[in-house]
Structures are given as structure tokens and as C-alpha cells.
Predict the structure.
Amino acid sequence: MSLKQLSKLVADGEKEESEALARELLAQGTDPIEILDDLTRTMDRVGELFANLDIFLPEIILAGEALTAVVDIVKPKLKSTQRLPSKGKVVIGTVKGDLHEIGKNIVKLMLETNGFEVKDLCYDVDPLDFIKAAEEIGADFIGASSLMTTTMPRQQEIIEFLKDKGLRGKYKVVIGGAPTTQIWADKIGADLYCEDANCAADKMVAIST
């Protein structure tokens, strides 16, 4: 049994088989963080297939249900190994026009495991709503996910609105999602680019200490 097999089961929407294999992998001593990282990459690939019309809504729903089932199994193991004290407050969401939030949900879980306080705005979030929420809770980070190339400019809009309001220096803006890259992050002036869930937690811990 392997993570590769689990990823395929989740991508194929095989919920019961995914649950069984996740339990087996944990029983064998597989690191729960490694499981979530692998599944984050899997769901990024599923998101790309959906965006390219290679799969359709029923398939991505089934994959999401399988992933949620696995996360529910893995989550208690993460909580029992919480490693770090509180590192700050984060507002996180998927940008306007994008309805994908599975990968973002894993990032949220990883951040909470690493001691961050996270306010989840869910999906289809207007750029100004990120800023309003950050102001309301006194956030340190704004995390914006995009799973489609057509919604990537919404990440840039968050940064531009922060500049317009004189708030750019107040928050560290973190971006991620399947189509995003370090080149894109540099272009729009984001503080961090994260390619997977564990990367987000690690990098944000590093710059918050």
C-alpha cells in the first residue's frame, strides 16, 4: 500500500477505499503530514483537469468527498502531534470566481496544526472581503488561493487594494494554487508563494518568528 495508491483512489472518487487505505497507512506509521501534502498535490491536479474540461463537476465532487473522508481520518493524528505555539492570525480563502476550496482546506488544517489562528472565508471571495476580514481580526497574513488561470488576477487585486488603502505593509500576502508560480508571486508583489500545504505552514512559521 502506498501514498500513490491513495492519491489515485481519492482522485477517482473512491471514498470507502480511500478511507480504508488511509487507516492502513497511518497504522503502518506513515506521517499524516506527508499524507496531506500528497493529497494537496493530487487535488491540484484534479483542479487542473476540471479547469481544462478533462473532467466535470460530478467527478470533482466525488474526489472532494473522498478527500474529506481521508482528512477526517488524518486530522486527529495531526492534532495529537501539534508542534508549535501560536504564530499569528491568518485570513484565508479562494479568490473571487473560483469555487475550488479542497486544497485551501488542507492548508487551513496544516496552519492550525502549526499554531496559527485561521479565519476561513471559504470560496468565491471578493478581494476587498479579504482585507475587511484581516482588519476585523487583526491578521498577520492574508492567504489567497486560485485554482484557475482565469482567477489568478484576483490575487493581484488584493495587493493593489492594500496599496490603495495604505495597508500594504500591514499584512504579509501569501498565494498558492495549481496555476500559480514563484514567477507570478514576484510579478504581483506577494510576500510568499507556497506550492503545497506543508510549504505554506513552514514558510509562514519561518517569517513569523
Strands lie at 88-94, 116-120, 141-145, 172-176, 192-194. The two ends are 38 Å apart (CA to CA). Residues 48 and 178 are 7 Å apart (CA to CA). The domain at 3-79 is CATH 1.10.1240.10 (Methyltransferase, Methionine Synthase (B12-binding Domains); Chain A, domain 1).
